[in-house]
Design goal:
The longest helix is centred in the middle third of the chain and has 20 residues. The chain has three helices and eight strands, in the order βαββααβββββ. Helix 1 crosses helix 3 and helix 2 crosses helix 3. The chain is globular and about 45 Å long. The protein is α+β, with helices and mostly antiparallel strands and 161 residues long. Keywords: Chemotaxis.
Length: 161
């Protein structure tokens, strides 16, 4: 038996265009800052939920080095704190989520962004589409997740023969 996954209101091509626009609009070009060694390892992950006719989550994932670099460029600072990084990465996923929401039917609501260096994995979501963007030599992973119909009482369970 296979499960039914609702059709995505957004495509990988949409994500590519929206993501490139958001990165270009928010991140001032300039030389990359120096990332202290203890900041270079790990990942920073951010998510924002969309609720309405379609329910889903938009996630953004970058290396810790990229997160610090984009924060410096976005905020035009030489030195950034972890709070600055959380704010900047959260704002990027929020703007990206707002752009995705604009592709949906009216009445959709954007949640508050969440930023973590831990796992965003949630067994109640199914990846709908993804894209990998490149900014200042850093990969930026953007994904759209839909509710897993096996864990979402709002969706009918359908199977195919």
């Amino acid at each position: 038996m296979s499960t039914y996954v609702p059709e995505s209101p957004v495509t990988p091509e949409d994500l590519q265009l929206l993501g490139a626009d958001v990165l270009a609009a928010f991140l001032v070009d300039g030389p990359a800052g120096v990332v202290r060694e203890e900041q270079a390892d790990g990942r920073v992950r951010a998510s924002v939920a969309v609720r309405g006719e379609w329910n889903g989550v938009i996630t953004l994932e970058v290396s810790r080095a990229a997160a610090h670099d984009l924060t410096r460029r976005m905020l035009l600072l030489d030195e950034v704190t972890e709070e600055d990084v959380t704010d900047a990465v959260g704002e990027l996923v929020n703007v990206l989520g707002g752009n995705v929401k604009s592709l949906l039917v009216e009445g959709s609501v954007l949640g508050l962004p969440e930023v973590t260096d831990g796992d965003l994995g949630d067994s109640t979501r199914v990846e709908i589409c993804q894209t990998e963007l490149w900014w200042a030599g850093h990969p930026v992973h953007v994904r759209v997740w839909g509710a897993d119909p096996d864990h979402d009482p709002a969706h009918e369970h359908r199977s195919t023969p």
